[in-house]
Design brief:
- This protein is α/β, with parallel strands linked by helices and about 900 residues long.
- The protein contains 27 helices and 23 strands.
- Helix 23 links the parallel strand 10 (about 545-550) and strand 11 (about 570-575).
- Helix 1 runs antiparallel to helix 3 (about 35-55).
- About 40% of the residues are buried.
Length: about 900
């Protein structure tokens, strides 16, 4: 196997982060400036040394042992710095000298002083230990370290569109010749080949082919390499929109049989590794098989023997081939030359590119990954030549094709900037083939400090840009995304890339994994993805855990013993969708007692916790909390006023909390708040409520979602509040189907900021759009979505603009507006810059070039001589086996 870097990524990144964190504010407020300066100096030396050692790939048992100790030391320093920062914020909030000289304040300083002295002694000892190795230190300037960072990276789009496949025409024809004839009751087809060859891509192409789609009534995609029998049955039932509760396999199989009876169905079993436990035989015997059905099952596997044992006949096995040189070059160009319209314009660069391509051996995954790496580099020979020269040596050390591919992938990982290396390691905690919500990833990265605010770009924006880079480099795959601009909502990782990431994560003790690469809880775990099979008892003795996220679980095996675990280093806690029962060992009271003891917590997610009714006043103990997600907690009735005492909060999400009627007064104290979802406009008579006027202090807001309730009222002195949010980029107004004339008049008079780039108006009951939705008032607006109104009939006169004032809108979405009477010509005239239009259930629209009664979209062609892309979104949905994108 490939040997990893001697100095693991975690150490290098943590050290760089610590140097950034130990700033003057912490030093001088606490009075330990000399100790912090000494620490910072030593860290800079160690950072430079380790970077230099890693660059030279020198091996040493001494350094290997020292690295493990150094990792522990640095995590400890990080905890101490966080404690200091939180104490500083606490004293600022109290705004009192007395808080610093209180008994508790003096005790804190005493303990910090002792820890600092001890840590500095350990750092000096560590440096002396490392000096045993022949010195190779080149004291680079700190800004030069990790010079492969994003400074030289050029991006021409946020993410790629779906990668156009190449070389599949003949393969597709062959498989369709087998599938389309209706001459068998149930046909089995196998697609076999090594990892990274494109078996799944071919299966997807067949699955979404229009002729194939019209041939079958039902289509089911099963993508679980572990192939747990119960999980497969539940996945099938979910896609059939049938009840999937329970664990009785016979009952579930009966439901599947009933749902598929008298239906022509297509099932894809993707990436099957083994059938040794008999799961396939039991499921196959339960599927209906009649001559009238002519159904089909497609199986993809790396192991040809597996598909034979599953019943596929020799003549129905398709052996997927490597790409030809011409096909490989076509794919390579689409990835590597995205900035030059996927064409290579330099003959010398083309020669180097084709030389690199030949070394990829026709493997699509290797071609895309190396192409993604090169797309991040300038199109100069000096940037490409080292890759071409290094690749043969790396591949020569790997005798097996599997290891050869991993070596190719390793090269792409090695070229990542430091922050991206840390971010991509997070994928190691997720199960294979797991669809990951982008919001969870972004919040995690912010919570652990892997990304942070840079200039005017907020931390979550930086996190999304990091994910886009990983997608552009073909290391992560987009699954669900918005049609208009490709904004990604969920993603996943190819199993070969995941295999490489898991190996690196193991080497650096990023997380704990068993022999089957499943994430497990141990007393040494630093990050944990919880499934229904995870045993949490070992956490009782864990003081190192930094991130705990529910992945494939809706309950958590906590006992009170585990709840009392000293996981004091926890930064990230995602318990979304967890089921809490009063009679269980871990109820709501236990949960809050445990959570509020986690003083270093930065990200807390309790989305869709059905039985969550309240937040305790003790939530204010979480001084370091930056992100709090409570969306979709339908039984949450009230937030405590103490929530306004969280000085670092940047995201507060209470969207779709239907039992919540208002938010508490004092939200303006959250001066760093950047995203606020689900702000309930309250009844004007409620004294304890936060009113729209009370938000004036939130100068950092980028995203605001306003929810109107039955008793909501906008007062006269609140009409201009929104225009004060000069950094607001996205505004969502859920107008609550309110029809009262007074309320609609107030909504009509709102004054939003000119900074808006995205606007969503939902459940609006006016006959015309509000007058403030006009190009002269919103001249930076790029995307407009209006949906769910049976009353709306026309756009206002101001909406249409004038000759000198036209919309700059590029994306338009109109959904469920049955009485909206507008013409395509009128829309195009008002919005000459439109590139994408999506329409759904707008029966009264006239002369639109796409479907308006169901779901349709229009996309402007990239080239002037191309025809516009007009397609039914139902058909577009067929192009991908995942859920349709969301807005």
């Amino acid at each position: 196997m490939i040997e990893g870097a001697l100095v693991d990524t975690a150490i290098e990144i943590l050290m760089k982060g610590l140097v950034d964190k130990v700033d003057a504010q912490v030093q001088y407020v606490l009075g330990f400036e000399h100790e912090f300066e000494a620490m910072k100096s030593e860290l800079v030396i160690l950072q430079a040394y380790l970077s230099d050692v890693d660059r030279h790939k020198e091996k040493s048992k001494t350094l290997e042992a020292a690295s493990a100790k150094l990792r522990e030391l640095i995590y400890g320093i990080d905890d101490l710095v966080i404690d200091c920062q939180n104490r500083v914020d606490y004293e600022k909030m109290k705004n009192s000298y007395l808080s610093s000289i209180s008994l508790r304040g003096l005790y804190f300083r005493n303990q910090i002083g002792k820890k600092l002295a001890e840590i500095n002694r350990e750092i000096v000892n560590m440096r002396q230990t490392l000096n045993i190795i022949p010195p190779m230190v080149s004291l680079y300037k700190s800004e030069e370290l990790g010079s492969s960072g994003s400074g030289s990276v050029r991006w021409t789009s946020d993410i790629f569109d779906e990668y156009q496949t190449v070389g599949l025409t003949e393969d597709t024809r062959t498989l369709k010749r087998w599938i389309l004839p209706c001459n068998r009751s149930l046909q089995l087809i196998g697609i076999v080949g090594m990892g990274g060859l494109g078996k799944t891509t071919l299966a997807q192409k067949i699955y979404n082919d229009r002729e194939v789609c019209s041939r079958f009534n039902m289509k089911i995609w099963v993508c679980k390499s572990t192939f747990d029998e119960l999980e497969i049955m539940k996945s099938i039932l979910q896609q059939l929109k049938k009840e999937d509760h329970g664990s009785d396999r016979n009952v579930l199989l009966k439901r599947i049989h009933e749902a598929l009876s008298n239906k022509k169905y297509l099932i894809v079993m993707d990436d099957v590794w083994s059938i040794d436990d008999g799961w396939w035989k039991r499921i196959f015997e339960g599927l209906p098989k009649t001559e009238k059905q002519s159904s089909c099952i497609i199986i993809t596997s790396r192991n040809e023997d597996v598909v034979r044992r599953m019943g596929v006949e020799e003549e129905q096995i398709h052996r997927h081939k490597l790409l030809s040189e011409e096909e490989g070059w076509l794919l390579f160009c689409k990835v590597a030359f995205v900035s030059s319209k996927r064409k290579c314009k330099d003959p010398k660069l083309e020669r180097v590119g084709k030389d690199i391509l030949r070394k990829c051996g026709g493997l699509p995954l290797a071609i895309k990954t190396i192409g993604g790496l090169l797309s991040s580099k300038p199109q100069f020979l000096s940037a490409w030549q080292p890759i071409s020269e290094d690749l043969p040596q790396i591949l020569a050390n790997e005798s097996k094709s599997h290891d050869s591919l991993l070596a190719t992938l390793q090269l792409s990982y090695d070229e990542l900037p430091l922050n991206l290396k840390q971010c991509i390691l997070c994928f190691a905690i997720y199960p294979e083939d797991y669809e990951i919500e982008v919001d969870q990833l972004a919040n995690w990265w912010v919570g652990e400090g892997f990304v942070y605010k840079k200039g005017t770009k907020i931390a979550r924006k930086m996190a999304l840009e990091c994910l886009s880079e990983l997608i552009n480099r073909c290391l992560v795959e987009a699954v669900r995304k918005r049609n208009y601009d490709g904004r990604v909502y969920s993603c996943k990782m190819h199993d070969m890339i995941r295999e490489m990431i898991i190996r690196i994560a193991k080497e650096g003790s990023f997380c704990s994994l068993d022999d089957k690469n499943a994430n497990i809880a141990t007393i040494h775990s630093r990050r944990l993805g919880v499934t229904n099979e995870t045993l949490l008892q070992p956490l009782a003795g864990n003081s190192k855990l930094r991130a705990l996220l529910l992945t494939k679980a809706n309950y958590i095996g906590f006992t009170r013993q585990v709840a009392l675990a000293q996981v004091k280093s926890l930064r990230v806690l995602d318990l979304s969708h967890i089921k809490l029962e009063k009679s269980s060992q871990f109820c709501e009271e236990d949960m809050w007692r445990w959570i509020t003891s986690l003083k270093r917590l930065a990200y807390l997610d309790l989305r869709d916790v059905a039985n969550l009714t309240r937040l305790p006043r003790s939530i204010k103990k979480l001084w370091g909390l930056q992100i709090l997600v409570l969306g979709e907690c339908k039984n949450l009735e009230q937030l405590p006023r103490s929530i306004t005492a969280l000085p670092k909060l940047i995201v507060l999400d209470v969207g779709n909390c239907t039992s919540l009627s208002y938010l508490p007064r004092g939200l303006s104290k959250l001066s760093h708040l950047q995203e606020l979802y689900g702000f309930k406009i309250p009844d004007a008579t409620i004294q304890n409520a936060c009113h729209l006027r009370d938000l004036k202090g939130l100068r950092e807001l980028r995203v605001l979602q306003l929810d109107v309730t039955e008793k909501s009222m906008i007062e006269e002195d609140e009409l201009t509040v929104l225009e004060q949010f000069q950094q607001l980029k996205m505004l969502v107004i859920n107008a609550g189907d309110r029809t009262e004339e007074v309320f609609l008049e107030r909504l009509e008079k709102l004054s939003p900021p000119k900074s808006l780039e995205e606007l969503y108006l939902r459940n609006f009951c006016g006959h015309t759009t509000p007058a403030w939705i006009a190009p002269e008032l919103l001249d930076r607006l790029q995307y407009l979505c209006i949906e769910d109104s049976s009353v709306l009939q026309h756009m206002s006169d101001r909406f249409r603009g004038s000759d000198g004032n036209k919309w700059r809108i590029e994306g338009l979405c109109l959904k469920y507006l049955p009485n909206l009477e507008e013409t395509w010509e009128g829309i195009k005239s008002a919005m000459p810059g439109l590139t994408y239009v999506e329409v759904s259930h707008c029966n009264s629209l006239k002369s639109f070039t796409c479907a308006v009664k169901n779901m349709g979209c229009w996309r402007k062609p990239e080239e002037e001589n191309e025809e516009p892309d007009v397609v039914s979104l139902m058909e577009e949905h067929h192009h991908c086996h995942h859920k349709d994108d969301m807005n």
